[in-house]
Amino acid sequence: MEKGTVYIDSSYRLHYPEGATHMDGFPEDLREVAHDHWGNFPPQHPLISDLFGIAFFFLWLVSFFGNGCVIYVFLTSNKLRSPTNIFIVNLAFSDLCMMTTQGLPCVINAFVSDWWMWGATLCRVYACVGGIFGVASIMTMVVIGYDRYNVIVKGFKGTKITFGKAAIIILFVWIYAVLGCTPPFMGWGGYALEGLFLTCSYDFLNDDWNHKSYCLYAFFANFLIPLILVVFFYSQIFKAVVVHEAALKAQAKKMNVDSLRSNVDDGADSAEVKIAKVAITNVMLWVGIWSPYAIVCMISCFGNRALITPLVSQIPAFMAKIASCLNPVVFAVSHPKYREVLAEKCSCLGIGDKPKDDKMDETKMQTMKE
Asked: Which of 12, 67, 158, 259 has a beta carbon 3.0–4.6 Å from 150's, enabling a disulfide?
């Protein structure tokens, strides 16, 4: 073993000489997409890259089968082929594309090279493509929130969504995503390697205002404003359902009955609880997955950069990709008709409502026997 080299001992501990940095031996042809900030940190344990490669592979598998099922079920079932359900299909499509274009190159890179192996130009293309699919997914979730708000809160006063209107909305979502992510190729902002040199994203470490202003735009246009809209839509939905249920209970009390609803399962959650679960799940999923990445970008631009280590920059970016796996569960599996059709087409998955025990019928049968 040569003196001064980096190596791992039999206990998988990393050893390196004093003064060694994370950018030692970094390829010169990638310097244009790598910030000198990463040279302030010691060499990172090579097994970390392997772990990210394995994690990205499993995320891609889950995303592929989850979103693939959503697309297949919604497009092949007549009962699910409605204008508003196209939004869910679009979300599944963008999530599937995001994880395929972002996950698989990272998996290959993690086990083949210590650095980004595809060149500086493809680094920028990779980041741009990931941004387009990520923004398309975010804006589609906003559209789904608006659609539910339009149906539940506005009711008959709401705008009726036809196939034509749904297509125009989806087209607008993709135009918005493309226009918002291509400015770095036109001179505004930039894309660069992230901390572990496995993936590329926004260049949030450049000091000039050109790059900072673009990151600020992305923070507001692709995170904060969509988050505010989603919170507004689901809070109004929850409020409307609470008011409606209160009115039903008041009317039932006047009529001296337990409930105005027929075939009500006493053990089932009330409408308020169900809507609250959906609303809280959607909002918390958004905050939990996208906030860490947005915070890292803002700290890198305007805060204490010493806090942004290679691993700290990589983990939030990885968490953002988890959205592509969870969205099919939140937006599709929670759809009753989707579960019903999925149980028919893919019965091996064991998804579907279990048959309820009819205690009344059992009591009647017992009485008849006696």
From this structure: 158
